[in-house]
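Quick note —
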Amino acid sequence: MTLKIRAIQTKSIPEIIIQELKKLVDKGELAPGDKLPNERELSKMLNVSRPSLREALMALNLLGILENKRGKGTFLKDSSLRWPTEPFFASSLKAENFLHMLEARQILEVEIAGFASERSSREDIIDLEKILENMRSNLDDPKKYIEYELQFHKAVTKAAKNSTIDSIMEKIYQQLQDARSYVQEYYSKNKLNIEPSKASQYKFYPWTPSSPASLEQDLLGHELIFKYIKENDSELAKKAMSDHMQVKYHFINTQEVNNNSLKRSSV
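Predicted structure written out below.
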């Protein structure tokens, strides 16, 4: 007899903390406006370390679910907002998980570009042109540029006219967007909250090119994808998307290799 048993997925401590807090909200034991116990008390109640608790609370704070009021404490701001998606987006901050996410995007988005070149409507082309113009206008603002860059990929997926692919990619894009927002805010405001031993696992680099020149190079890749979608050239659209994803994969993979080298040399 063959048993169909699902493998048990391990969860990070911050993920478990968030799930426990969500249960309190669902049961009505924690309502908007309620104050959470202080960090020391809450860590004892949950039997977790304060750094892990801090990471979970920071994630909820950045999503607008919790609010820190100086001198008063942490409060539940709005329980109706979207809580972190599964798998817990904080796990995606590790470079190796970014590689996995990017590998999935490589497999899917290359074919998506091909479909888009065959099925895109005039409205799809107009939308892509507008997004490219917004990317071009924000080469001096990496944060805004990256927001429009994600919109571009979503628009290409929309142009592929496949509802199943839409659903799959929406989950991937949401996870990517959650992680981007988390890291950008976390690093700009709370760098010191990451334990030194874990700092090498979390990187700001995957989404913030360091110079306008690198953004311009990235824009050229997107313009090429658009060109072949507009020209209804499926093979070249797929090649342009593949080349674009390979650049991203190589960049993140190189950063991870360099990071591992630094960790070994520091031992």
